[in-house]
Write a structure and sequence with these properties.
The protein is mainly α and about 150 residues long. Helix content is about 45%, strand content about 5%. A hairpin with a 2-residue loop joins strand 1 and strand 2 (about 10-15).
Length: about 150
């Protein structure tokens, strides 16, 4: 025989082998869109922004949370032809705040390791070598095609 235990919002049901042998008679209830425990997307059914959405990555609750909320709200509710064009001041304030906390909000170019950056930009010697090998590769692939068309 199964047993049921309630813990807060959860109902825990323990079943026996006999219970599993018969088809379930459980009735599913429709989800409540206002259930605070139910995960919602970024935009709630009411049209409001769900600041607890994991998709925001905690931006709404960090040290620049207020600035982020101001900028994001302005963009979300924007009615301008170019959406968010009236939100430049809010985004500027958010960016300035993030620059005050570089350890929490690293710039995109700061994420690339220094070694990789110097290799990508290259020294004049490296650039010359790369362009020479590209030219040589291009002439090698062109050369056999020219010879085979001359033979035909």
């Amino acid at each position: 025989m199964s047993s049921v235990r309630e813990e807060g919002k959860d109902r825990i049901i323990f079943v026996t082998k006999e219970d599993h042998a018969t088809p379930s008679s459980a009735e599913l209830i429709e989800e409540d869109p206002n259930d605070p425990y139910e995960e919602q997307g970024l935009i709630l059914p009411s049209g409001e922004i769900n600041w607890n959405c994991p998709c925001l990555g905690g931006m709404a609750s960090g040290p620049c949370g207020t600035e982020f909320k101001d900028a994001f709200s302005c963009f979300h509710y924007s009615k301008e032809e170019v959406k968010g064009s009236e939100c430049l001041e809010q985004f500027r304030a958010m960016q300035e705040c993030m620059q005050r906390y570089p350890e929490l909000y690293p710039q995109e170019d700061e994420k690339v390791p220094q070694e990789q950056t110097s290799q990508e930009s290259g020294s004049p010697e490296t650039l010359g070598t790369n362009s020479t090998s590209t030219t040589e590769q291009g002439s090698n692939t062109t050369q056999p095609n020219t010879e085979s068309s001359a033979e035909s």
